[in-house]
């Protein structure tokens, strides 16, 4: 069973160079934020973005939202200083772009540790190159700090020479390999961004597909998409009620020495109960986070 440690239905990117966005994020109902130093920031704004992001995280005000700092890639002039600065910022995780090997993760781990990062600060990896996808398993298991994968479907589509289609068939193999590796190693895994901000129904359909594939949530580029992602990736009332019902029925059956029970004509075994417990726990965590954010 995949471990649920916190809700990650909606995780919003913002350019670290955009002070207004860093401020605005304190008021948004996103479960998590990616404070970006990489692709959303132009080369001449890299240092300013790094300073602003570290100051914003240290200043706080983000409540229970999960904070990830996306640093520049290993082969860039900004990488080392980004990791050192993020390591003691108080963010929950460093997100490394374009990861292609376990060694890259271990390099970041070593820099973080030397810079004084707390033991519970995680490493997340952008999965967005063909080599990275093919090595998803070794990357997932590269360090005890590994916390999750974020699908970088824009970079990946560029490298695969594939099209962005509604059903994402050209992307399904890559998404599936990363989901397998993430679940095998107990990591979180977030779906890629939807680029057409004018297409609300297309966005929602891509969230539904991401949920059905097994993603924990969706990465977003604009606040207007937060509510739809939160809605789609949250368990419905019906699912919660059904989960509670089968947990109770199975516990009653277990007390009578039975391993299975039939509820409303459906066979319920321990595996269904495990999944039901995950759903109930996720619903509780969403309620706690919503109360914390006042949303
Ligand atoms: C796309 C945007 C440039 C649009 O910005 P803007 O024109 O300012 O939008 P609005 O006027 O509609 O904004 C309304 C208010 O919302 C705030 N806002 C907008 N976007 C964000 C955000 N991302 N985070 C926080 N707040 C945001 C505005 O400040 C307005 O607030 P107010 O002042 O109160 O009116 C912009 O949305 C944007 O920059 N988005 C993020 C782009 C980004 O980070 N891209 C990189 C990540 S995606 C990626 O890299 C994919 C991956 O690597 C891959 O390969 O797939
Ligand atoms: Mg990318």
From TrEMBL:
GO biological process, one term: oxaloacetate metabolic process
Similarity field: Belongs to the HpcH/HpaI aldolase family.
SUPFAM superfamilies per record: Phosphoenolpyruvate/pyruvate domain
Pfam family membership, one: HpcH_HpaI
Name under which the protein is recorded: CoA ester lyase
One GO molecular-function entry: magnesium ion binding
Taxonomic lineage from the root: Bacteria, Pseudomonadati, Pseudomonadota, Alphaproteobacteria, Rhodospirillales
Residues binding substrate, per UniProt: 70, 128
Coiled coil start-end: none
Binding site for Mg(2+): 128, 155
Cofactor(s) this protein requires: Mg(2+)
Residue span(s) of domain HpcH/HpaI aldolase/citrate lyase: 9-223
InterPro entries: Aldolase/citrate-lyase_domain, Citrate_lyase_beta/mcl1/mcl2, Pyrv/PenolPyrv_kinase-like_dom, Pyrv_kinase-like_dom_sf
Alphabetic keyword roster: Lyase, Magnesium, Metal-binding
């Amino acid at each position: 069973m995949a471990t649920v440690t916190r809700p990650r239905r909606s995780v919003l990117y913002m350019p670290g160079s955009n002070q207004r966005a860093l401020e605005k994020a304190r008021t948004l109902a996103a479960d998590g934020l990616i404070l970006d130093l990489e692709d959303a920031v132009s080369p001449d704004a890299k240092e300013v973005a790094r300073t602003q992001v570290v100051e914003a995280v240290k200043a706080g005000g983000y409540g229970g939202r999960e904070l990830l700092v996306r640093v520049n890639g290993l082969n860039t002039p900004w990488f080392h200083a980004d990791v050192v600065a993020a390591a003691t910022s108080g963010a929950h995780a460093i997100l490394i772009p374009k990861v292609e090997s376990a060694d890259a993760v271990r390099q970041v781990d070593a820099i973080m540790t030397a810079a004084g990062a707390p033991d519970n600060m995680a490493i997340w990896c952008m999965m967005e190159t063909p080599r990275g996808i093919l090595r998803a398993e070794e990357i997932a298991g590269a360090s005890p700090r590994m916390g999750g994968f974020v699908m970088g479907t824009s970079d990946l589509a560029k490298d695969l020479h594939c099209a962005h289609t509604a059903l994402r068939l050209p992307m399904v193999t890559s998404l599936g390999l990363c989901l397998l590796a993430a679940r095998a190693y107990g990591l979180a895994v977030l779906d890629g961004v939807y680029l057409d901000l004018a297409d609300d129904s297309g966005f929602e359909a891509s969230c539904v597909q991401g949920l059905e594939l097994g993603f924990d949530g969706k990465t977003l580029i604009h606040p207007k998409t937060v509510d739809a992602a939160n809605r789609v990736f949250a368990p419905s009332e019906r699912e919660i009620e059904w989960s509670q019902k089968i947990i109770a029925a199975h516990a009653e059956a277990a007390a009578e020495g039975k391993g299975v029970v039939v509820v409303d004509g459906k066979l319920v075994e321990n595996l269904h109960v495990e999944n039901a417990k995950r759903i109930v726990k996720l619903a509780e965590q969403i309620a706690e986070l919503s109360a914390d954010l006042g949303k």
